[in-house]
Amino acid sequence: MASSTLPAINVQMPGMPESAMTKAVNGVLLLAAAGGSYFLIKKLLTDAARNGVMDDISNPNSKEGLAANLAMQLYSGMITSEWANDTIGDGTNLTVVFAAAKDIHSNRALVGFDDVAKKYRALYQRDLLQDLQSDLNAEEMTRFRGILSTGLGALPAQGKKYIATVSPGLVLDQKLNPLQPVPANIALGSYLESMQVANGQVLHGFMYNGQMRYIDSATAKIKNHVSA
Length: 228
Prior knowledge:
This protein has 228 residues and is of the alpha+beta class. It has 2 domains: 52-150, Orthogonal Bundle (Annexin V, domain 1); 161-224, SH3 type barrels (Roll), CATH 2.30.30. The protein contains 6 helices and 7 strands. The protein has a 7-stranded antiparallel sheet with strand order 3-2-6-5-4-1-7. Strand 5 and strand 6 form a beta hairpin. Helix 2 (63-78) packs parallel to helix 5 (128-135). The chain is elongated and about 60 Å long.
């Protein structure tokens, strides 16, 4: 069978010399190629970053691995839709989100929120803070920030009654020495006792991580667990 060739296409704008037209077409083709290369390189870099984070996940005791695992934990607690671009909280698991905040606080000597946010972006091409602000209401966001800074309030107390702050307060140790400030609307722990000290101040006692803690009754109240 005889081979055939496609006829050459001669495109020329009226009033434009052929050489000038050729240069213009070549310029457009070069720009298109450059644009395609840009997006290809961007995709390759994104994939490389994601693959790097996936390698980190297998080593959870390292700084990079811990940050990557916490990023995955936060994503699983917020993004429940199958749509990749979903930004609406549709079934946010607050227990998972708050537990991740507590883990960040507990490991603050090794990782910080910014470290987790970087891994989050590398894995999902999303902004962690924006997702949190989208999924959590104002009260929940305040609680999340409080857990990040104090480590308290991540999990509901297990007893029939628990202590929760109603305004910013100060947690005391069992010898009534100041430990750390806490924001409002934080569940502190299972209620154990109330006592009045020499100056007439009433303190509520609660258990936190196996340790007795106290807080001024003016800033915290005894609450009952609501059965599901």
